[in-house]
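Worked Example 4.2. Consider the chain below.
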Amino acid sequence: MAKEKPHMNVVFVGHVDHGKSTTVGRLLYDAGSISEQDMRKLKELAQQVGKVGFEFAFVMDNLKEERERGVTIDLSHKKFTTQKFEYTIIDAPGHRDFIKNMITGASQADVAVLVVAAPDGVMAQTKEHVFLLKTFGVQQIAILVNKMDVLNYDQAKFEAVKKSIGDLLKTVGYKPDQVPFIPAASFLGDSIVKRSANMPWYTGPTLLEQLDRFILPQKPTNLPLRLPLQDVYNIQGIGVVPVGRIETGTMKIGDKVIAMPGREGNGVKGEVKSIEMHHEQIQQAEPGDNVGFSVRGMNKKDIARGDVIGHESSPPTVVTEFTAQIVVLNHPSVMTVGYTPVFHIHTAQVACKIIKLEKKLNPATGEVLQENPDMLKNGDAAIVQIKPTKPLVVEKQKEIPQMARFAIRDAGLTVAAGMCIDYVKKV
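Applying the procedure from the previous section yields the following structure tokens:
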């Protein structure tokens, strides 16, 4: 059996209409992941709904409504194999109201491709997406400067766009000289999988080659064990079997573990008897592994989804309140003190109250615009103080970033997203 290739998640982001979906469609088609036959169907479909030239975008935009509007709504996941990696492609929408998916996308992404249309250059959403990628810890990005055909493949114009994007990257802390810039025309296929005869002046990688140049992020095995529970089963003859995905650290048979906060809020201790992944017994599990494990000493009624397993020696942090940096994305009116929406943190869903608005920040640079603002509206970034209505596990971004990020939802909408930067620990 061939060894499995290491897995990476790549998110495609950028301003609406800059060609993200078309880029992904062209990549999959030229790399042979989509058949001629499927492509022909999509082309016919594009003509039927009056969207000639949208066939590549349709590869990812497979919802009927999206095809009619020509806009990416939901987050599409597609598997794709390069020479080195197996990629899951996350095509994140550019539209404001769909940015919630961009958040859930970026929080899972190992690497990102920012698509910027050369004729337009840096737009409002380009800035926002760059800030969000940085905020959510995406370290490696590549810039695809798309629609070069519109500029007659002019090198000077590419260099000008490259400079303005470079200036933007600097403001959030990326180093432009370490970021690849690829001039491309996705619809025509220039620099996506095939080299472009139209740009002999460009000698760097194609998009496909760049995907193989990214570096596999190190698994956070050096951090303390954190395994948020997705479910807890009681299996006859085995006992209590919690199930979840390891975010950080490692778990071995015989480990003394604790589930926090547990039903009483003080944790539930146990010992790992066996670990199973893909129906096979394993001795040790590491970050990214989805496991079920049997545990001695825990009762099914004492632990539940949203609890987090750690080692007894460094238990997960339960907080009574915490400070977070948030971005307001899609709130129907304004956010004020006293607002109590549901926070989605790892697998927990807990109503939390906003008890103080500390600072309003510039969403593109993070600098302080205002101390103690009265309210926050869409597009605002801020530092806020939050009080969960019941015990909750959350960690600091600086210490265990995988356990610091969250989305804030209200009435079926993701209204904001953020990360914990400080907390008051429950005693």
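The chain has three domains: 7-213, 227-311, 318-425. Helices lie at 20-30, 36-48, 55-60, 64-69, 99-108, 124-135, 155-172, 207-213. Compare this with Example 4.1 before moving on.
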